Amino acid sequence: MDLTTLTGLELVQAIIEGAIPHPPMFETIPMRLLEAANGYIKLRAQADGRHLSPFGGVHGGFVTTVLDTVVGLAVQTALEQGVGHA
User: Fold this and answer.
1) What is the mean pLDDT of the chain?
2) Contact yes or no for 26/45 (Cβ under 8 A)
3) If 0-12 CB within 10 Å is exposed, 13-18 middle and 19+ buried, where does residue 53 land?
């Protein structure tokens, strides 16, 4: 699949449909894309024992990674064909 021919929304939808694999980070931080629309992402994330801070709460890095992922994907859905972001 030539990713440069897809709009940002088409790219994200291809991940949801399984035509493009989920990013490896989705295994480190268990996440799954559920829905996408222009400027909208629905994602499920589940912290487990690997993500706890020394004090027993979910580490802030888990939360910020999920937030970074959702915002980045929402931006991606609004991009034109062949355009990416970092």
Assistant:
1) 93
2) no
3) exposed
